[in-house]
């Protein structure tokens, strides 16, 4: 099956990115996922942490692998922690956000999506020490211009305002949006649930609270009890040469336009080598572009899943994206499509003998 990313998939991604899903408050994203899945989510549950678990049993006779495929619904964002009156609010970050990236950004706050802006002194009113010491979180406020009118409460989440756009065309056709990490993974998993391979039992985990410690993934993996797991995410592309001061960029992590990234290792997980071989060989056989994500920091839901129960062989496959955990990140449509096609092809080629091979 040669799955494609077309206008319908891009429109779905826009809907997913527009939803506010700051960690611990993923309900709007979960609702959008259920609406998109329709009858394909007939066998689903929502657990105590808000994970959406959907099971699509394979139809091929004989023993089938139980494969968990996970993508996290949450995004890094803000939580209102204080009311300074007149529509101005203190906040804390939820997940990895830099205060320097927040100044002047448009946000939506609470269930009523009140519009606001993150305020900081204009440059001509700052002191010399303020200009050299950087931006501190306690110097920032969400300013709704008085529009909140009692509708913003302590504990409400705030997310960057929707800013979805499709840029360019052809091979460099690019997506721009907040929360591409990990709505790209969520949109990919929706397509897999809609078009499941018949040789495996697909255990789809739309997980919560990944950005604050992969908490939902632990719970989901224990509930689904898979034979192996594939995690879909969006990983930083550190591929801009001007950041390297004219030296060769040896720390690129991933590159836009080079295909989906297969993880070998990150801060939280050593990918199962059998799965690394299976995915890379599948890509080569199918003629799909791919790259190995440079080992190093960061992590995905795999860091929780692979340690659940008696251990779960796991791997992560990510779409590269620039400027993740900011108000606007970008990714290539071609990388997203190749990721979808690679995961579907790799799942379609799995059988129980895969886990009988030597691990290393």
User: What's the alpha carbon Rg, rounded to whole Å?
Assistant: 21 Å
Percent of sequence in beta strands: 15-25%
Shape: globular
- Broad structural category: alpha+beta
What string gives the helices and strands in order? Answer: HHEEEEEEEHEEEEHEHEEHEHEEH
Helicity, as a percent range: 10-25%
Description:
This protein is of the alpha+beta class. The protein has eight helices and 17 strands. The strands form three sheets. The protein has an eight-stranded mixed beta sheet with strand order 1-2-12-3-13-16-14-15, with helices on both faces. A six-stranded antiparallel β-barrel has the order 4-5-8-7-6-9. A hairpin with a 5-residue loop joins strand 1 (44-46) and strand 2. Helix 1 (7-18) packs across helix 4 and helix 6 crosses helix 8. The model has no long low-confidence stretch (mean pLDDT 93).
Furnish the topology, listing elements before pairings:
Elements: H1 7-18, H2 27-37, E1 44-46, E2 52-56, E3 65-72, E4 77-83, E5 88-94, E6 106-109, E7 114-119, H3 128-133, E8 141-143, E9 157-160, E10 165-167, E11 174-177, H4 180-194, E12 200-207, H5 215-224, E13 228-236, E14 261-263, H6 273-286, E15 291-293, H7 302-305, E16 314-321, E17 329-332, H8 333-348
Parallel strand pairs: 3-12, 3-13, 13-16, 14-15
Antiparallel strand pairs: 1-2, 2-12, 4-5, 4-9, 5-8, 6-7, 6-9, 7-8, 10-11, 11-17, 14-16
Helix pairs in contact: 1-2, 1-4, 4-8, 6-8
Task: Give a quick precis of the structure.
This protein is an alpha+beta fold. It is built from eight helices and 17 strands. The model has no long low-confidence stretch (mean pLDDT 93).
């Amino acid at each position: 099956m040669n799955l494609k990313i077309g206008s319908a998939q891009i429109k779905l991604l826009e809907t997913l990115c527009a939803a506010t899903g700051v960690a611990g408050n993923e309900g709007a994203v979960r609702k959008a996922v259920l609406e998109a899945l329709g009858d394909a989510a007939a066998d689903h549950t929502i657990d105590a942490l808000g994970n959406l678990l959907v099971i699509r049993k394979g139809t091929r006779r004989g023993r089938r692998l139980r494969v968990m495929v996970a993508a996290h619904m949450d995004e890094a964002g803000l939580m209102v922690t204080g009311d300074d009156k007149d529509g101005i609010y203190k906040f804390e970050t939820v997940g990895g956000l830099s205060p320097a990236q927040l100044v002047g950004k448009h946000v939506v706050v609470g269930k009523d999506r009140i519009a606001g802006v993150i305020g900081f002194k204009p440059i001509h009113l700052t002191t010399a020490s303020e200009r050299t010491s950087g931006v501190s979180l306690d110097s920032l406020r969400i300013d709704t211009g008085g529009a909140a009118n009692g509708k913003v409460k302590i504990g409400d989440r705030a997310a960057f305002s929707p800013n979805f756009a499709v840029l360019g065309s052809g091979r460099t056709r690019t997506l721009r949006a907040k929360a591409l990490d990990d709505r790209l993974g969520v949109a990919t998993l929706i397509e897999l649930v809609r078009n499941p391979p018949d040789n495996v039992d697909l255990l789809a985990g739309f997980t919560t609270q990944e950005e604050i410690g992969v908490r939902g993934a632990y719970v989901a993996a224990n509930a689904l009890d898979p034979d192996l797991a594939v995690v879909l995410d969006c990983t930083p592309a550190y591929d801009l040469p001007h950041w390297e001061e004219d030296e060769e960029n040896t720390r690129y992590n991933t590159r836009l336009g080079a295909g989906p990234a297969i993880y070998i290792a990150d801060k939280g997980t050593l990918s199962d080598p059998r799965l690394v071989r299976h995915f890379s060989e599948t890509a080569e056989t199918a003629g799909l572009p791919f790259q190995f994500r440079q080992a190093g920091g960061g992590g995905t839901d795999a860091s929780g899943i692979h340690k659940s129960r008696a251990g779960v062989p796991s791997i992560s496959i990510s779409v590269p994206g620039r400027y993740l955990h900011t108000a606007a990140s970008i990714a290539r449509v071609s990388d997203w499509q190749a990721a979808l096609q690679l995961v579907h092809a790799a799942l379609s080629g799995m059988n129980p003998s895969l886990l009988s091979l030597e691990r290393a």
